[in-house]
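Possible race condition, two jobs.
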Amino acid sequence: AQLRQDHGWIEENWIELAPQLRAMADGHGWTDPAEFQHYAEVFLSLCEGHIALEESLIYPESKARWAAVVARRLTELPALVRA
């Protein structure tokens, strides 16, 4: 649930940040540097927290599931070779 909520917050922040970033990249000077810095810092903070949570919850679970699949397939391999 926390990861899903994080995605929402990250997307909401990106909606504010993206037009400013696009304007800066296109050479337009209408962006407010302080506002841009605020949204950029919030975006980075949200992403860092989200990635840390993913690494602590999702990646270990994914690795365990992948290891189980590989182990099962390795045990099935001799039967496939004999066939």
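Job #2 (started ~2 s after job #1):
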Amino acid sequence: MDFRLELVTVPVSDVDRAKAFYVDKVGFNADHDHTVSPELRFVQLTPPGSACSIVLGGASGLGDMPPGSQRGLQVVVEDVRAARGHLAARGVDVTEVDETPWGHFVFFADPDGNAWSVQQIVRP
């Protein structure tokens, strides 16, 4: 039996600002943006090449986590330096590369402070 993680809520205070950040700066694909009711807006975004998407919660009426409280979100790339260059060129405040024995990482946060890491897996 497969258990595929396909959607993670990212709590935000301003859906339009968050959507612009993830789509225009980070480069996620905008999959869905539907107003279901006056209290509920469903905005689903997917990192390029990922089987898992995010849904913007909080201000959209989805989820009960406070905006900016999501930690430990991680995407994996083939080349972390290229990913860092991509993010920095698009205006994302991204750290320098952190090289560890278990991977090379850069880190960034969205406008609410939801924290992301970008990992290049290091193979021995």
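The mean pLDDT is 95.
Logs attached separately.
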